[in-house]
Specification:
Elements lengths: L1 H30 L18 E6 L7 E4 L5 E4 L2 E5 L5 H12 L8 E7 L7 E6 L6 E3 L6 H7 L12 E6 L5 E6 L1 H5 L14 E4 L5
């Protein structure tokens, strides 16, 4: 019985050792599941945007206002303040400073209800699109997304002669040819990722 007892103890120690080694070997796999937080793009307010301004504990000051063509907004107690060119967070901070003359420790939240964006945050489409217009840039936007938004090409469009005009960080312009005719026909390899401020020019066919 003593011999069986010692064998049992030895067997249990071996099992425990194997479990410990197995736990150590799987630890890196658990760590590899973690991912870095995604990057956040900060929206820049532009003329034509609609903003909801929420002032905590002050419902009479909470309102939805348009950004005027001059880039400014007006809310109760603040006759005029520049909004265009700022992020919602920066505008909220400026409103808190302005309201602090009338309210103790105001807390303001600014939410963009509908947006057009500043020119640097738009994608503009000119020429032979069904609905040429300026579109608010969206993260991950492609030229195919743009064409869907503007309703495709007109029958007079020279789609394969289209081009994107892009302003680079150093101020220079880059011209990117786009074969829209083939893209709209299903050739996804001609899809191009758009950037804020891009201008898509679609010329008219000569015949």
């Amino acid at each position: 019985m003593k011999s069986l007892s010692r064998n049992g103890v030895i067997w249990l120690m071996m099992v425990a050792g194997l479990l410990l080694l197995g736990g150590c070997s799987t630890a890196p796999a658990v760590r590899s599941l973690s991912t870095a937080p995604p990057s956040v793009e900060h929206y820049i307010i532009g003329p034509g945007d609609s903003l909801q301004v929420f002032v905590r504990d002050n419902p009479n000051l909470t309102t939805t206002v348009p950004v005027r063509p001059d880039g400014r907004i007006s809310i109760p107690l603040v006759q005029s303040i520049m909004a265009a060119g700022k992020t919602p967070g920066a505008l909220a901070s400026d409103l808190e400073t302005a309201l602090s003359r009338y309210i103790r420790s105001p807390l303001v939240t600014v939410i963009v209800k509908s947006f057009v964006g500043s020119y640097s945050q738009q994608v503009r489409v000119v020429g032979q699109a069904a609905k040429p217009e300026a579109l608010p840039y969206r993260s991950g936007m492609t030229v195919l997304d743009v064409m869907i938004d503007v309703g495709g090409l007109t029958k007079f469009a020279a789609g394969n002669s289209a081009k994107i005009i892009r302003r680079l960080p150093d101020g220079k312009e880059q011209t990117i040819p786009v074969r829209l005719g083939e893209l709209m026909g299903g050739a996804i390899k001609y899809n191009v990722v758009m950037r804020p401020g891009d201008i898509l020019i679609i010329p008219q066919s000569l015949f």
